[in-house]
Amino acid sequence: MISLSNIDSMLRRAGGWFLRSGIQEPSGGVARYYRADVGKNARVSTEITGYAVSALLYLAERTGDGSYTEAAVRAARFLTRTAWNPALATFPFEHSDNCDQPTPLAYFFDCGIIVRGLLAAWRATGVQEFLDTAVASGRSMIADFQARSVIHPILLLPDKRPLAYEPKWSASPGCYQLKSAMAWQELLEATGEQRFGTAYEKALDGALEAAPAFLPGVADREKVMDRLHAYCYFLEGLLPCAGRTDCARALAAGIEETANTLREIAPVFERSDVYAQLLRVRLYAAQAGVVPLDEARASWEAGKAAEFQITTGGFAFGRKGEEMLPFVNPVSTAFCLQALALWSDYQNGTLNARRQSLV
Known about the structure:
Layout: H1 4-20, E1 34-35, E2 40-41, E3 44-45, H2 46-63, H3 66-83, E4 94-95, E5 105-107, H4 108-125, H5 128-145, E6 154-156, E7 161-162, H6 178-191, H7 194-210, H8 221-237, H9 245-265, E8 269-271, H10 272-287, H11 295-306, E9 318-320, E10 323-324, E11 327-328, H12 330-348
Antiparallel strand pairs: 1-2, 1-11, 3-4, 5-6, 6-7, 8-9, 9-10
């Protein structure tokens, strides 16, 4: 079992990685990952920058260190002033300052993560620019992505034509999209615009209908692990309605299925973010009073997540057998540090997990 003092040290090191590793570039944008084997960042990602805003503000709130707020504001301003395309009213997939330009795409999932990050920045700073861009993006997400029966995952820019669906989960509609649809629920809370609440409810209905068929989804066990990551997004997206009987039932069943499948596949391939996502959902659901906490399994998942922190303070993406993969990932780091912080709070009897703070 990892000690509380070890968790505090791990959080300080993870926070330092965000601030000083170079994963956040001078523009304020955050790279998709760092390749430890070649010593190079991947391209800046608008989605990952949105995640980083939320993670940095979580660290700022937890520690009182203004350096995290400053970094979060730089990232948020990159999103509103550089990444945001006002003519198209959307966030393109990735960003590059050199000639290696990405394909002009917009992802529903990315936009929702960015909106949640900007809303977190607005709540923390009161800067109207962050709210205004979040609202504009939320409205365009409804207009551009939400069809009669599904949410299109990817649009080709500039005409916003939906791309043909592909078998891989990130290129097809699915229950995982509910995590980003949480942005609509938070926009409803911020603005009172009922269109956002209606959009979330429609996404919720579709996700509940689609979820039973999502796992395992493929025969390849490594790809099932990837789908577990996405399935945890569905479980996270249920948190705004955790008190509903159908949502509570889906949370309980989903936590059990994820835990069992994770343990089965882990000896072959394991992802740090899946351990962290599962632990976070357990703690949120227990706090909501809808799924009793299995402390033994939660403790095991916390210990497994902790194994992925490397010497620089960031968390590695995953491991195949005994070999750690060379990707040091901002999302893995954010999810793991938050999961371990929440686990520490639970052990201290001080757990107070706010849904809007979920990275």
